[in-house]
Structure formats: C-alpha cells, structure tokens
Amino acid sequence: MSRVASLGVAASRETDLFDAAAGDALAAQAPLAVRMRPDSLEEVVGQAHLLVAGSPLRRLVDAAGGMAAPISVILWGPAGTGKTTIAHVVSRATGRRFVALSAVSAGVKDVRSVIDSARRELGFSGTPTVLFIDEVHRFSRTQQDSLLGAVEDRVVTLVAATTENPFFSIVSPLLSRSLLLTLEPLTDADVEALVHRALADPRGYAGELSIDDDALAHTVRLAGGDARRALTALEAAAGAVLTRAGSVIDLPTLESAVDKAAVHYDRAGDQHYDVASALIKSVRGSDVDAALHYLARMIEAGEDPRFIARRLVILASEDIGMADPTALPLAMAAADAVAMIGLPEGRISLAQAVIHLATAPKSNAVITAIDDALGDIRAGRSGPVPAGLRDAHYAGAQRLEHGAGYRYAHADAAGVVPQQYPPDVLVGRDYYRPGAHGAEQELVDRVARLRRIVRDDSG
Questions:
Q1: DSSP state, residue 114
Q2: H-helix or E-strand containing 73?
C-alpha cells in the first residue's frame, strides 16, 4: 500500500473521504479536532488578516473569483493555527480532488505517483487535484524539486504547510512559484470561541456539556494559541465528564484529564503579571533558584514562551548590560531557539538563559545611560552638530565648512584623538557610568581615560 497519506481523504474518487456516506461512518470515531474542522472560510477562527474580502485566500477559494487554476500556496505558521484546515477548505470550495502527503513518511516516488495520477485525472475527466503536503520543510531539496514541474504547469495546486521559516526551509524555485501566507497563533478569544463552538455544535457535544470559567481559562492557557491542543484537552475532559454522566467540565476534571495542574493566573491578568514580575526581579536579584521556580510556574501555566523570552532579552541589557556582554547574545539565542522549536524542548533554552542571567554580575548602567541621554533631548538640550562631524561628501559641503578640522582617529597611533564630538551645550556631560561588577569593572578606568584624551581640547 502506498505511503500517500490523505488525512482522512483518500486519493481515488471511490474512496474519497469527502464522500458524505464515508464521512458519516467515520465522524463518530474521529478526534474532536477533526470533527470540528471548518467546512468553509466563514467557520475559520482567527487569521483575520487572511480572511478579509479580496484577500488572496478569499480569491483562491471563491469559485466566482475567476481563478480557474488556483495558484499554489505555502502556509507558514505555528502548530494548530489552521494550516490543514485551510488546505481542506481550498479543496472543498474549489471542487477539486484532494490528496495529502506527509513529508515525514513520503518520498520522491510518492510525489511522482501523485503527480502522474493527477495528470491522468486531469486528462480523462478534467478534474484538477489539490496536493496538500504537511511539514513540507522536512522534504529534501531533491524531493521539493520533484514538485516544480507539476506546480509550474498547474497539474496540481500545491498547498504546503510548514512551521519553519520557508525562506530557509523551502527551495527558492518552489517558493517563487507559490503564494506565501503567514498564519498567526490564535488569540485567547479565538480559543474561547473554538471551545464554545465545540460544546454547542452537533459535530462536537451538541449542547450536552458546558464548561465553567476556571476550566475555560485553563484550557486557553494550555492551548497557547494552538486550536488542536485546546480541542484535545477539551475532548479529554469531556470524556471524563460523560463517563460519570455529568454535564459540566470544571477545573479539577480538566486538570485530571490532561494531567497538568493549573497555575492560578486570574482572568484579569494580575497573577500573570505578578509571576512575570517575580521572575524578572528574582533574576535581577541573582536568586537563580527562585527564578527557575517562576520560570517553571509560567511554563506549566501555559504561558507563551516567546513572552518569557522577550522579557529575558530586555533584562539582559537593562540589568546586566556591559557587566556581562555575553548576556544579551545568550538571551537572543534562547529567544531564537524558542521561536524555532517551541515547547516542551524550548524550556531547556529558557532555563539556560535564566540560569546565566541570574548568576551574571549585574549593572543598570546601560539603561541609565540611554534614559539620561533621552532626558536631555526631551528637555531641549541638543544643539547643532559640530562642523567637523557634519557630512562632507556632497557637492557644496566644503563651502559650508562641513568636515573642517575633523581629526581621523585611526591616523593616531593610540586610535583616540582630542576632539569635540557632542554639541556645545552637552560638552562634558557624562551619560555612561560603568558599574563595579563583572566585565564592566574593567571599563571604569578605560572610559575615564578615553574621556580625558577626547576632551583635552574640547573647549
């Protein structure tokens, strides 16, 4: 049997799972996330930027849009944001034959088999084929290249899904032949809407169950913008309630069903910001153990790991700065790692960053310096740029004496020359005041020495 996977929709018309009878037979056993998959763009939750009237996606699925041969698309976004759903909607709305491959298991042979079948179907019946490839970034360059001819000739309409940056993971010829659509994580409101729809819709629980506020809030946190994760958690909790003939999903039931304790962030957001503040203040205070506790608490509560990473990047400059110049690159690396791999593996990179930042020497000299400089600007202390520092590379600059008297620092053996750099009103003003900890301690004498040389004849 071919490894061509169809995500519940077989390649041949005889076994086409979009057929109503087959769909009815499978509906009862399908996971909730599959049963609740939208049939049209009107049912899609989130991705408002892709669904506005006249958008490329709207035109792609609109039979009246004149797109007799829809162009191929690449759907880029995190897991659970609707990539597979959009592929199904494209197929259903355009009346095309739908075949799906998983890049995890399919090879070049499978791709060519689908293309050959699509070409025959197009020639015999005139029915075009939508080829959906999930996790297309897992295809090698050779496998991706095998799609080019069929995409170019529109033998197939390719709908490819990826969670990785397509500019790095997809060959440029395929990318240039496709429309790139970027999907965003679902908002909390989007996830709540999905949960309520699943409880009310006949495809879900048809109004037989309800969910209390605490359980709903925890479901939203667990989802982290992932619709599939939210519906999977809801299905587990619903199963537990129905087993005991109940009708309300509460927090203890949800916790038990998904085996994940709720960290109580209140809906108003106070606890959310309190715990985030505690993490930052623990790192600033060099308590590595408390910092790890709050990090774990945020992760377990379903906090967006990118939010955590952003706070650590800010802290690296605000509270450490030049006391440990490696702090910012490491925090940025952790943020990049989280964006690339997500959770749960991303927790390791976040923990490494927290440990490094908490144990690093501390200095707030960077934020103090820039804030003092901004304070002077806002107070009107600026003044004209000294003539020697002005741009002297255009015609007429010499007549204005731009660049006159400028001393080129590299011409001096020490690489530093006496010269006025700030406007007159700010001569002698010190913004950066190095601290006495870590690598910044070495800058105390260096900065003082540089200032003495530079300001020697600065007026």
A1: H
A2: strand 72-76
For 249, phi then psi, to 5°, come to: -90, 115
Nearest residue to 74 (alpha-carbon basis) of 85, 83, 63, 61 = 83
Residue 85 tokens, joined: 């759903």
Between CA 357 and CA 155 the distance in angstroms is: 54
Rg of the chain over CA atoms, in angstroms? Answer: 30
Residue pair 83/161 in contact by the 8 Å Cβ criterion: yes
Distances (CA, A) of 290 to 269, 297, 323: 21, 11, 22
Instruction: For each of the domains in the chain, give its residue range(s) and CATH number, in order of start.
Output: 20-182 (3.40.50.300), 188-258 (1.10.8.60), 270-359 (1.20.272.10), 374-454 (1.10.3710.10)
Half-sphere exposure of residue 183, counting CA atoms within 13 Å on the CB side? Answer: 29
Amino acid occupying residue 205: Y
Other residues' Cβ atoms within 10 Å of the Cβ of residue 429: 12
Angstrom distances, CA of residue 292 to CA of 276, 299, 307, 332, 347? 12, 10, 16, 18, 11
User: For residue 48, what are the contacts with CB-CB under 8 A and spacing of at least 6?
Assistant: none
Q: Which residues contact 45 (CB under 8 A, 6 or more apart)?
A: 38, 82, 186, 190, 193, 194, 197, 227
Residue with tokens 């040389």: 453
Instruction: Please name the amino acid found at residue 229.
Output: R
Whole-Å CA distances, 137 to 74, 102, 172, 182, 455:
11, 11, 12, 15, 56
224 DSSP 8-state letter? T
Q: Is the distance from CB of 227 to CB of 220 less than 8 angstroms? A: no
User: Rounded to an integer, what distance in angstroms lies between the CA atom of residue 426 and that of residue 422?
Assistant: 6
Q: Residue 436 in contact with residue 444, Cβ under 8 Å?
A: yes
- Computed over every residue of the chain, the mean pLDDT equals 82
pLDDT tens per residue across span 146-195: 899 888 888 888 889 988 888 888 999 999 888 898 888 888 899 999 99
Q: Are 154 and 69 in contact (CB under 8 A)?
A: yes
- Give SS3 for 188: helix
Q: How far apart are the C-alpha atoms of 402 and 392, rounded to whole Å? A: 5
Per-residue pLDDT tens for 382-414? Answer: 888 887 777 776 656 666 767 677 888 887 888
Contact 47, 219 (CB under 8 A): no
Task: For residue 307, give the amino acid letter.
Answer: F
Q: 168: how many CB neighbours lie within 10 A of its CB? A: 8
